[in-house]
Amino acid sequence: MTALVKAKPEPGLWMESRPVPEIGPDDVLIRVKKTGICGTDIHIWNWDAWAERTVPVGLVTGHEFAGEIVDVGRNVTDLRIGQRCSGEGHLIGHHSRQSRSGKFHLDPETRGIGVNEQGAFAHYLRLPAFNVVPLPDEIDDEIGAILDPLGNAVHTALSFDLVGEDVLITGAGPIGIMAAAVARHVGARHVVITDVNPARLELAAKVADCTPVNVAQEDLKDVIARLKLAQGFDVGMEMSGNQQALDQMVENLVMGGRIALLGIPPGKSPVDWSRIVFKAITIKGVYGREIFETWYKMIAMLTNGLDIRPVITHRFKVAEFREGFETMRSGLSGKVVLDWT
Ligand code: NAD
Ligand code: ZN
Question: Which residues are in the Enoyl reductase (ER) domain (predicted)?
Answer without folding.
Answer: 12-338
